UniProtKB/TrEMBL annotation:
Gene3D superfamilies: MetI-like
Annotated protein name in UniProt: Peptide/nickel transport system permease protein
Annotated source species: Roseovarius litoreus
One biological process term in Gene Ontology: transmembrane transport
Listed transmembrane segments: 30-52, 103-128, 140-160, 172-193, 228-253, 280-304
Family: Belongs to the binding-protein-dependent transport system permease family.
Keyword hit for Amino-acid biosynthesis: no
Subcellular location: Cell membrane
Amino acid sequence: MADTSSDIRPTRLRRAWNSDIAWSFRHAPVAMVSTLVVVVLILGAVLAPLVAPHDPFNPATLNLMNGFTPPGVANQFTGDFFVLGTDDQGRDVFSTILYGMRISLFVGFSAVLLAMVLGVTLGLLAGYAGGWTETIIMRIADVQLTFPAILVAMLIFGIAKGITPPEYRDQMAIWVLILAIGLSDWVQFARVVRGATLVEKNKEYVQAARLIGRTPFAIMLRHILPNVLNPVLVIATISLALAIIAEATLSFLGVGAPPTKPSLGTLIRIGQEFMFSGEWWILFFPAATLLALALSINLLGDWLRDALNPRLR
C-alpha cells in the first residue's frame, strides 16, 4: 500500500499557507513586525537563564562598586561593561529586564487564562440557560463594569492578601496577583460569549442536537463553544496586553510582585526614584520594554480582529 502521508502533509501545509488568515498576515507588515517583537521578547524572557549575562537576583554575583554604571560605558572602578547599565545595587539592567519579563508574562498569560475560562463558562451558561441564571450573572457583570478594572484588582488583591498568613504572603503574592487581575477581567469575555450564544442557540444545528437527545452541557461544549471562539481569541489577545499593564501598574504602586521577584512594574518603580538624579537608564529601558511588549500585542490583536471579521474579507 502506498504511503499517502507525504501527499497529505504538503496539501495541509499548502491549505494553511493559502488560508485567509495566512494571506492576511503576509500582507500586513504591522502584524509581522509586531509578531517578531513579541516572539523575541517572549523568547528572551523564557531563555533568561541562558541569555542574561548575570543573575541579577543572586546576591553572590553582585558588586556594589558596579552601581549606577551608565549604559555602554565600562565601570571606572571595576572595569566591567554593561550594555544597558546597572542600577543602584550594581545589577545589570539588561538581565533584570529579562527576568522581570518572565514575571510579567507569567502573570499576564495566567490572568487572561483565568478570566477567559471564567468568562466563557459564565457567558455560555447565561446565554444558553437564560432566565434567572442569565439575570444574576449579567447583573453581577454590570455592577463590576461600574468600577475601573484596576480598582477592582486592587480590592481583590487586598482582600486575598489580607486572608493569607503573613509568612506566606511573599510566596503567594504572584498567585494573588493573577487572581486579582483575572477576576477583574472576566466580564468582557462573558458579555461577548453570552451575545454570541444567544444567536447560536436558535440555529438549526443546535435544535437538531436537542432532538437527538444531547444534554445541554454537551450542546454548549461541543456545538456552541467552537462557534463563539473567534471573538474570544481577539479579546484574549488584547486582554493580554491589558493584563501586563495592570500587573505593571499594581507593582508600580507597591501592591503587586514582591521585591524578591520584581516584574517590569517593580523595575519601573525602582527606576523612577533615580530619574531626577541623572540615572535615567534605570527607568527608561524597563519602561521602553513594557511599551514595546504591550504595543506589539495590541497591534497583533487589532490585526487578528480584522482578519477574523468575515465582513472585511
